[in-house]
Amino acid sequence: MDNYYFHMDNLSVGYDKKALIHDICIGIKKGEIVTLIGPNGSGKSTILKSITRQLQIIGGKVYFDDRNLNSFSYKELSTRMAVVLTERMRPELMTCHDIVATGRYPYTGRLGILSREDEEKVEEAMRAVHAESLGSRDFNNISDGQRQRVLLARAICQEPDIIILDEPTSFLDIKHKLDLLSILRDMAKKKQITVIMSLHEIDLAQKIADKIICVKGDTISHFGKPEDIFEENMIKELYEINNGFFDPLFGSIELPKPDGEAKTFVICGNGTGIPIFRQLQKEHTPFIAGILYTNDVDYRLARLLASKVITEEPFMEISEEAFLKAQKAMESCERIICTAVPVGSCNKRLGELIDAAKKSGKAEFV
Ligand SMILES: Nc1ncnc2c1ncn2[C@@H]1O[C@H](COP(=O)(O)OP(=O)(O)OP(=O)(O)O)[C@@H](O)[C@H]1O
């Protein structure tokens, strides 16, 4: 546990003295961003509640900055740990400014009177999350996304060493999601604040996290760097995906391919096929795509959505074998969609396929 700033040591968490997840052994370094992912109900919030002392732990220990978490007084913890959980707060008669200002209470005297410096920090935090205009609004009468931003502002002005957030992006629009993640990244990388959070958007987790914790069943199924976790089969197994795909390279989700016999052929490449594949997918039209180099961006999607893909090795001239396969498949199709794929010296036989499509009377140019 030497180098770890935050350490879960054989931790078991759960409810009513029954462990839901056990033997959690995870070490987190200062300034790292660690993200929990996993299916609904797998226990992400339970872990977060347990490591923030909102829920009694069932077994094991949590160490924070080399001290048992239980040895911190609440006051001490409130200057060092900021917590943004999903539970709805319904405070009586508090404006958004008042809520953010509570982040400064650990630093004020007993009367909770904010100094000029505290006020500045509150204003600064509200500006950081673009919530300045919400200051005088009743916290109970704002939108879910606005509430998430106000709670983040409260956590920011608390000036913690560690920030723990449960699904902080769930209600945010894309701009505010990007804002939130940039704020957290800056907090971690410029100020060395450690960030632990759960996220449902695994594409975002892949992009922001230094380490990923996969929660599944009664244990942590994997813990490691995103590049090791975001492997197609790993994500498929974690979420038991059998109704579509997740492409870890682009972080995109795809619906299942249309079933049935393919009667449409798409001649494409260099990204010209992607909009056509998506259109055919929406129409539930099964299709064959080719001839695609296996390093072509069209290939990444065609392999998930097409009934069949006729391929060639990257940077090679199109082989006779691939050409004949494509020709045969085109003959069996009723439509041949020809995109504006550029034809050069390597893929010149694609030009021959386009000519053949023209002659067949089945060609549709898009
Ligand atoms: N207060 C509670 N008492 C008993 N069981 C609970 C309690 N809160 C949650 N659970 C159960 O614990 C399990 C884990 O729930 P938890 O909220 O930690 O999952 P999660 O991974 O955060 O889910 P989600 O992705 O849906 O937010 C679930 O089966 C849930 O029903």
From TrEMBL:
Primary location recorded for the protein, binned into one broad class: membrane
Stretches assigned to the ABC transporter domain: 6-242
Annotated compartments: Cell membrane
Pfam families (alphabetical): ABC_tran
Keyword Nucleotide-binding: yes
UniProt superkingdom: Bacteria
InterPro entries tied to this protein: AAA+_ATPase, ABC_transporter-like_ATP-bd, P-loop_NTPase, Siderophore_ABC-ATPase
SUPFAM superfamilies hit by this protein: P-loop containing nucleoside triphosphate hydrolases
GO MF annotation, one: ATP binding
Membrane topology annotation: Peripheral membrane protein
Transmembrane annotation, as ranges: none
Record key words, sorted: ATP-binding, Cell membrane, Ion transport, Iron, Iron transport, Membrane, Nucleotide-binding, Transport
Keyword Cytoplasm annotated: no
PANTHER family xref list: IRON(3+)-HYDROXAMATE IMPORT ATP-BINDING PROTEIN FHUC (PTHR42771:SF4)
Official protein name in the record: ABC transporter ATP-binding protein
Organism annotation: Blautia faecis
